[in-house]
Amino acid sequence: AINSYPVIFIFSLIGRSMGGRVAMCYLAKYPTDISACIIEDMDIRRRGVDSNYIQNFDEAKAIAFKRGHPTLNSLTRELESIGYPLDIYSKWIDEGRIREDTSDGSKHKFWSGVNPAFRALCYRTIFDSNSGTDSWSKIATNMQREIDNGNEADIAKLHLMVAGIGTVCDESSVEHMRKSIPERTPLSAKTYSEGTHSIHNSVREEFMADLKQIINDARNMM
Question: How far apart are CA 113 and CA 22, in angstroms?
Answer without folding.
Answer: 18
